[in-house]
Each structure stands twice: as C-alpha cells, then as structure tokens.
Amino acid sequence: MSSLVLSFALVLLLVIAAIDMRAKVVPDALTIPFILLAFVAAFVMRGVVPVAGPTVAAAFFGVQWILSRGRWIGSGDVLLAFGIGALLARPAAVLLWLLFTYMSGAVVAFALLAMGKANRNTQLAFSPFMVIALIFLLVFGDTILEKFY
User: Fold this and answer.
1) Domain that holds residue 111
2) What confidence tens digit (pLDDT) does each residue in 66-84 have?
3) pLDDT confidence of residue 1
4) How far, in Å, are 39, 42, 62 from residue 56 at the CA level?
5) For position 147, what pLDDT does the model report?
C-alpha cells in the first residue's frame, strides 16, 4: 500500500517539476493533491502524521517568500516544500534535503553560467532540484542519516 501511494506522489512531483521547468509555475491544482498523498504515505510508512518535517520545510521557504515578496521563490514552492517535508517527516531529513536541493541547483546554475547558456538574471525553475533531492534522499537518506546523525 505504501509503495502505491508513494508512487502516485512521485508521479505528481515529476509532473509538477516538468510544468515548472516549462512554464515557471508550480500549480496548486497538483500541489494540494501531492500534499495529501504525502501525508497519507507518511502515515502508512511510519504510522504517524508528521508535523516537524513539513513545518521546517515550509517555514524555510516561507521566510524566503516573505523576504523577497515572491521574487526569489514562489508560493507554490512553499506548498511543495510542505508536502516534501511530510514525506521526509524528520527535521534532520528535511535539513539534509535542503542541503542537496541547493547544492544541485548551484551546480546546474554554475554549469549553465560557465557554458554561457544563462546569465545572472536567468530564472531557473526550482522544483526540479527539490524533486531530485527528495528522490535521492528517499533512496539514500536513511543510510546517510545513520552515518552522520
């Protein structure tokens, strides 16, 4: 059951990331069902409704959204982070996810700048980096956290 729910959540994430890459928007019509699936998956996998993970993730992006008045990060990214935080559940996993999200974004941005395919004013969709980091952590996160936490 948990694999099926998680699969649906990941498919939604991939669709959201593809839309964001193309249109630079994270649609609430897909993000809200993802959040619901994320909480169901977290409950089925762990037997608890996560509170700390989603709160840390949404607060981190929410502060950026407020400080930038939506110029750095969109409100859809805040909602997406809330759902991803629910899947990861633990604050330590969320912090590791944030690290990998920003690291992957920085590597791609640097590569695009170095190749002349972007400049300092180029806007990149951020949800693909969020999704890539989540998938990485769903596969390797427990191992990484056991070694260092």
Assistant:
1) 2-148
2) 998 978 888 899 999 999 9
3) 60
4) 15, 16, 10
5) 86
| Total domains in the fold of the chain | 1
Contacts 24+ apart (CB under 8 A), 1-9: 1/44, 2/41, 2/44, 2/45, 5/37, 5/40, 5/41, 5/44, 6/41, 6/45, 6/87, 6/138, 8/37, 9/34, 9/37, 9/38, 9/41, 9/83, 9/87
For 72, other C-beta atoms within 10 Å of its C-beta total 13
- Give the number of C-alpha atoms closer than 13 A to the C-alpha of residue 87, restricted to the C-beta side: 30
Label residue 24 left, alpha or beta by phi (over 0 means left) and psi (-120 to 50 means alpha): left
Regions of the chain with pLDDT less than 70: 1, 149
Distance CA 66, CA 59 (A): 10
For residue 14, how far is the Cα from the chain centroid?
11
